[in-house]
Each structure stands twice: as C-alpha cells, then as structure tokens.
Amino acid sequence: MWGSKKDHEENGEQASINGEAARSTRSARQSRRSHEPREEPDERTRLLDRPRPPNSDGYLDPDDPAVSPYNLWSVRFLRYFTILFFMISCLWWTLLLVSIFVSPPGMHTRGSGFFDFAYTCLTIGNLLVAIIFFVAPARALRITTAIIGGFLLVDMILIIAVPRLRIEEGWVGIASVVWAVFIAGWCILTDRIVAWGKKEEEERLTGRPETRRTLKEWLAVLAASILTVIFVVIVILMTGTLSIRARDATLGSYGERILVDGDKYAVHLGCVGNISHTDGKKDATILLEAGEDPAEYDFEHWAYAALQNGTISRYCYWDRPGYAWSDNAPSPHSAGMSADALSEALARSGEEGPWILVAAGTGSIVSRIFSSRHLKQVTGIMLIDPMHEDLLHRIASPGRGFMLWAWGIISPLGLERLGGALFKGRTREDRVYGRNAYQSGKYIKAQLQESLVADSLSKNEVASARNIQSSDTPLVIVSSAIECRRDVEWERKQKDLSKLTENLVSWDVVNKAPHQVWRTLDGRTIMEKRLSELIKAAKDTEMPVEIV
Fold first, then answer.
1. What residue spans carry the Basic and acidic residues bias annotation (predicted)?
2. Is residue 221 a contact partner of residue 133, using CB atoms and an 8 Å limit?
C-alpha cells in the first residue's frame, strides 16, 4: 500500500511537470505564430479549424475574406462553366465577324449577318456581367436578365415562325439567338445559386445571414444593374426591328425570286411587257440595271412609262444581291459575280436576248461586264451618269468601308426604321425598296461588299470587260450636268466612257439634272428619246458573229 501511494505521488508530480512543459510549448508556438505573417484564407482553407481569438464564440467576422460562396463546389462549378461559355461565345463572335467580310464554308447567311452578330454581342455582354459581378448577386440583376431572356425568346420564335426570316437568318442566326436565350437563363440560374451559396456560408461561418452590404458591393450591384438595363433597351429595339422585318416579309413582289450560285442565295427578277417581232426578228428586251438604289425606286417607273408610250415593248429588271427582295450573297462579292448571278437568273427563268442594257451609276459597272460576257446577245448599251472604273477608289475608301461596317453593326437596333414606322408613317414599300431601303442590314452589307472589292476585283473585271467589248455596239451616254460641273474629273471620265465603243449614238449632258437623271422632266424626256434612237441603231447594226 505504501509503495503504491508513493508511486502515485511520483506519477502525479511527473504529470504536473509534463503539463507545465506542454503549456510552455503551446505558448511558445502561439507566440511564434503571432509574429509570423498571416496567410490570407481562400476557398480551400479549413476555415473553422483556425485559431480563435480569446473569448471567441467560434464564428468568423462577416467581413472576413474567408466568408465567401466560393467555398461551395457548386458555386465554383458554375463559375468555371460560365467562363467556358464566355470563351465559346468569343470564338463564335470571331467567326461571325470574319464571315461579314469573308464567308467561311457553310456559314453564309442569306440575310445581312448583322443580327446573329448582335445576338452574340448581347450574349458576351451577359456573360461578362455574370463573371465580373459573380459574388455580388442581386434580385434586380435577375429581374433585368429575365426581361432580356423573355425578349430573346420572342425573337427566337419570330425567326423560326416567319419563313422569310428563317431563310434569311439560316442555321447561323437561329443558333445565335438560341444560344443567347440559353445564356440568359444560365445567368439567372447562376446568380440565384450564388445568392443561395452566399447565404449558406454566412450562416455557417458567421452564425447568421448578412443583411447589409458594403459600399463596394453596392457599387458592384449598381454597375451590374445599369449594364443589364442597357441590355434590356438594346433587346427591346432589336425585337422591334425584327417585328418590322416580319411585317415587311409579307410584301409581295412582281416577278420571281430565283436561286443562283449553287442555290446559295436568291435574286429577284421581273419582266414587264410582251415579246414582239419586227420583220421576222425578235425585238430586243430592255434590261435595267439600277445604280445605288433598288431598281423599283423610281428608275423602273421611267421604264414603265416608256412601255406605256410605246417606246419599248418589253423590259426586265432585277435587284442585285442585298437590294430590295434579293438575298445577300456570300462575301466577298464583286461586280463580275453580280453579272454572273444575273446571267444565271435570266437563264433559269427562260429569258433570252437580244438585250439592250440600260444602266445607271455603279450599276453600269455590272452591265459593262455583262455585255462583255454576252456579246452576241447585247445589241445596245445606254449608260446614265455611269461610274468610271478609274473612280471606283471613291467607294472603296477605308473610311467609307469602316462607316458602312459600323452602321451595319448597329442596324439591328433599327433606330431610324422604328422611328420612321412609328412617327413618320413609313410603309413596307418605303423600307423594302423605297426611300428608306438604305436603312436595312441587307442593303448596308451589299454596299459594304461593293466597297471592299471595288478597287481590286471589280476594277480588274471591268477593265478586262472594256478590252473585249464589241466595238460596233451602239452606245448612248446621258450625264448629269450638276455632277459634271461639281466634279471636273467626273466630267472627264464621262467623256472617256463615250469612247467605250466606236458606235456612239449620242452623249448628252442634261442641264439641272442630278445624278439620278430620270428624276427631272428633261432627264426623262432625253432618256426616252435616246433610248428610241438606240433601239433603231441596234436594229440597223449587224450583230457580231464571233466572240473576240
């Protein structure tokens, strides 16, 4: 018993000594830790196992950086996928940007290509807001994003339901708007889960959900809300413009739309009047080529008046790719490609020559190329204030090209088109082929395509055409006096075009006539008179037997 008691006392003393040593060791470790730099915690830190200050209740301060929704794997998962979707959208955005200038195989759309680009820009904007303000969820952000998604859903239904829109936008446009709808829903889901994760982590680490926000958080919420409100305005304007396009698609056209270039796109061709014969020979059909505006916009009206007056018996007109009822062609697209599209459209519709070409402005470039490629069928050429190949650099300037591209990028907003429809009474006719046709994305892209290759491909094509043009083809030139007085070089080039063939019927400079000569009475009178003389000269001229 005694020995046992003694042993217990010795053991007690030893335990006391060991306890003192352990406490001394812990004190030393804590002292060293207090002098060491404290590492900033992150989502992988074992937050609740960290040393607590004296008298701590075991919870972290709400402002502690470790109190973050990133601690949850589900939140991190959402962020990783949001970044992945952003990268995919940027890649798609790049492809769409390139396709405006050079159409990749399989990515050509018969519409302008600006709407799908706009939807992708909106998608990237939504993803950027979600990524930048990821840990600052807010109900206002979810509400505005839901509004965006709702209007995008309406756009998707419109594109799929309206046949004309579905054809113009193609699979590229449909995929772009569907992706935009999906991303809007994804951003709403992400913001809601982050808000839930933030609340869960605050309850776990601080003991209660945080109801207040720091100044930094309020600024983040404000910035995100402002951006999404801007997106709401943008998508509302886009939906309005798309609705106008759906409305315009119901406007019927005279003639037919004919697929060309391997059925990649369709062009509009219309013919008016009856085929007539004189002395057993088929009379020539007048083939109109408009200038900077669609042929239906008052140029074709002059031809119809000539038909009613008996000056001509039949005429055909068409819309170059991107004009009026014609689809946009793949990029790049030159004047020679337009001439080939016209040739194919005429052949598919069963139209045959002989032709007398009547062309205005930049359209004269296409007609001259067409003439050189159909020497046996073209029996006369009438050019109205035509563009000379040496002046093509004017429409090919980098500044003009950039402005056309920028105007095309914002064209889906339809600021002018919506304003004209709502406040100025603009009709479908005005927007499709009339005075407001220049506002459509298709027209802007067509102008951009002409600008990009005017001083290269198109210039080379028309220069070659001049070299092989038949020298005895009757030629009429009608120029604008206003343009000639305003621009000496323009007048000099008009004179040069009068030497296009050796059989010049007449060259008139119409006083007080603008570039669109037919918009004045004197201009229409002289044009009709010279056209009658050209028809007579064409009958008297022997057609070429072989192509030089």
1. 1-11, 33-52
2. yes
Q: Where are the alpha helices (DSSP H) in 322-458?
A: 335-348, 363-373, 398-410, 415-423, 428-432, 441-453
512 three-state secondary structure: coil
- Name the 3-class secondary structure at 249: coil
Spatial distance between the Cα atoms of 373 and 368, rounded to a whole number of angstroms: 9
Distance (Å, whole) CA 456 – CA 337: 13
CA distance 317 to 270: 6
What is 45-97 written as a DSSP string?
Answer: S-GGGSPPPTT--S---TT-TT--GGGSHHHHHHHHHHHHHHHHHHHHHHHHH
- What is the pTM (predicted TM-score) of this model? 0.84
What's the fold here for domain 257-391+457-540?
Rossmann fold (3.40.50)
Query: Is 133 exposed, middle or buried, given 0-12, 13-18 or 19+ CB atoms closer than 10 A?
Result: buried
Residue pair 205/48 in contact by the 8 Å Cβ criterion: yes
Strands 256-260 and 265-273: antiparallel
Q: What are phi and psi of 53, to 5 degrees?
A: -70, 160
- Write out the chain's pLDDT in tens, 548 residues: 344 444 544 545 554 544 454 445 445 444 444 444 555 554 444 444 445 444 445 567 666 676 677 778 888 899 999 999 999 999 999 999 999 999 998 899 999 999 999 999 999 999 999 999 988 888 999 999 999 999 999 999 999 999 999 999 999 999 999 999 999 999 999 999 888 888 777 777 777 777 667 788 889 899 999 999 999 999 999 999 999 999 999 999 999 999 999 999 999 999 999 888 887 788 899 999 999 999 999 899 999 999 999 999 999 999 999 999 999 999 999 999 999 999 999 999 999 889 999 999 999 999 999 999 999 999 999 999 999 999 999 999 999 999 999 999 999 999 999 999 999 999 999 999 999 999 999 999 999 999 999 999 999 999 999 999 999 999 999 999 999 999 999 999 999 999 999 999 999 999 999 999 999 999 999 999 999 999 999 887 754 434 33
Distance, in Å, from the CA atom of 131 to the CA atom of 541, rounded to the nearest integer, reads 73
Alpha-carbon gap, residue 218 to 336, rounded angstroms: 59
The domain segmentation of the chain, as residue ranges, is 69-248, 257-391+457-540
Taking phi over 0 as left and psi of -120 to 50 as alpha, with beta for the rest, 41 belongs to: beta
Alpha helix (H) residue ranges in 102-162: 114-132, 139-161
Helix (H, G, I), strand (E, B) or coil at 479: strand
